[in-house]
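quick one before i forget lol
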Amino acid sequence: MRIKKVKIGIKSFEDFLEGAKDVMKRLEKGEKVKKQRGIYFENLKAFRKALTEKRLEMLHVIKEKHPQSIYELAKMLNRDIKNVTQDVEYLKQVGLVELKRTEEKRERIIPFVGYELIDLQIAV
């Protein structure tokens, strides 16, 4: 089994711009540029805000128990549905959760985590 992982890093805005400039220069020269995927935060404070203990627990529950709705996820976590909905939406915005919509009897939103591992990289 191949382990899928999501790469998370901490990179200042200046470093991000320098990397973008380098890619642009290489593309102008006709060089091939390897596509890099990942989620980057500007600093450790922003990272900590994004991945709180409760959100990490949520990711684990989604991955292991496969809730069939946000409501079911909230019950599994023993948390208020409003707070769970907000956390799921935030994690979707940063790219850590995918949402599937179904329309059986009524519309349901099913949270999904498509990776096994989060790889944190911090430049020194």
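fyi The chain has a mean pLDDT of 85.
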